[in-house]
Design brief:
Blueprint (H helix, E strand, L loop, with lengths): L8 H18 L5 E6 L5 H8 L12 E9 L6 E9 L21 E8 L3 H26 L6 H13 L16 E6 L1 H4 L4 H17 L3 E4 L5 H16 L16 E2 L6 H4 L17 H12 L23 H34 L5
Helix pairs in contact: 2-7, 6-9
Length: 358
């Protein structure tokens, strides 16, 4: 029996059992974060640093999964955060349907990692991945609507809670339905760019992040302070730790802008001559920023399967039996290809001899 309000051993055991049941009930609601972005932008390195794994990053093949754990106070139970990484740049964006689904939509966040050292690929990559993610989220919301008709309202409400219901730019913001952050990687290389080019990249990313209701930060695996920023961001997404309200918007320094803290007035206008701001094919402010950015940094199409490394040739996936069989099949395929070419050539020669073709 308990005395004077003190809990007995039995009461404590009951409380612990209830907590364990609650933990188990929350298991299906453990947070997920999906990393997407430019090929070779350093997504794996950022994840490894967050997990405190001292190992060399390996090329990501398609979609890879890992997880992080964090002790929950003095309890035995630990929080678990699920981390997905999509490789291949924009080419494999359809695989987003695996981590973003009807079971995870309410507790999934996304981080887009863009290589600041390659601005001629930046807009294409960013636009392609944002469109693919929005399409997938909308599809999941539509599929979930039969089970939970309020799903879109819930996600919208959460989005505006992150930004602030009374934000001055509310009419210009179309918040992403799940938490979103854009990380500009390889800042150590980007900081040596011409000042005006840096300013253009920074203003453009600020506009895109702000109008999507996203956070924005620059990172580098060569600068520990910036790595710590990325750690704090991922911890916020997977474990719900405080995000912080520190803001750095100077283009001469690594940007750090939490969602909802920027203003269109502070971002300014697209880097276009005054006589071109009202001209061209731009139908929306986003189109105008795209026009300005791509006129300075003409974009290269990176959505090419040929640019994705062949995992079958990666030594980390070496399998003696499988590899020897693959070599054998490749040789058979090459022999068949030559046979077909020879037959086609012989058939054409015969047709020419018979006067059927000239």
């Amino acid at each position: 029996m308990s005395k004077g309000g003190d809990k007995s051993l039995w009461d404590t055991a009951i409380d612990e059992a209830k907590l364990a049941e609650e933990d188990e009930a929350k298991a299906s609601e453990e947070a997920c974060v999906l990393f997407v972005g430019s090929k070779n932008a350093g997504k794996t390195s950022i994840i490894l640093r967050f997990l405190d794994r001292d190992e060399a990053p390996k090329p990501t093949t398609a979609l890879e999964y890992t997880f992080g754990r964090r002790a929950r106070g003095h309890n035995i139970a630990k929080d678990v955060g699920h981390i997905w990484e999509l490789g291949g740049g924009t080419w494999l964006s359809k695989l987003m349907d695996i981590p973003i689904n009807t079971d995870t939509i309410l507790h999934t966040s996304m981080i887009i990692v863009l290589d600041l050292s390659l601005p001629n690929e930046l807009w294409f990559t960013m636009e392609k991945l944002l469109n693919a993610a929005r399409t997938q989220v909308d599809a999941v919301v539509a599929a979930t609507n039969n089970i939970d008709p309020e799903i879109k309202i819930k996600l919208k409400k959460r989005a505006w809670e992150r930004l602030g219901q009374d934000h001055p730019d509310k009419d210009m913001i179309d918040p992403f339905l799940i938490p979103l952050c854009i990380i500009g990687s390889k800042y150590d290389l980007f900081q040596d760019f011409d000042s005006e080019k840096r300013k253009t990249v920074c203003k453009t990313l600020r506009f895109v992040a702000h109008t999507h209701g996203a956070s924005l930060q620059f990172s580098s695996t060569k600068q520990e302070a910036l790595i710590n920023r990325s750690r704090n961001l991922i911890s916020h997404f997977v474990f719900g730790t405080p995000m912080g309200k520190t803001m750095q918007a100077d283009h001469n320094k690594p940007l750090l802008i939490p969602a909802g803290l920027d203003l269109l007035q502070q971002i300014g206008t697209p880097p276009l001559p005054d006589d071109e701001l009202g001209m061209g094919l731009a139908r929306t402010p986003m189109d105008l920023w795209k026009q300005a950015f791509t006129s300075i940094f003409p974009q290269e199409n990176t959505n090419n399967p040929a640019m994705v490394d062949d995992p079958a040739k990666d030594i980390q996936y070496a399998e003696g039996t499988v590899d020897s069989m693959r070599i054998q099949k490749n040789e058979e395929l090459e022999r068949y290809r030559r046979l077909c070419e020879r037959r086609a050539k012989d058939a054409r020669q015969q047709a020419m001899n018979e006067g059927l073709v000239y």
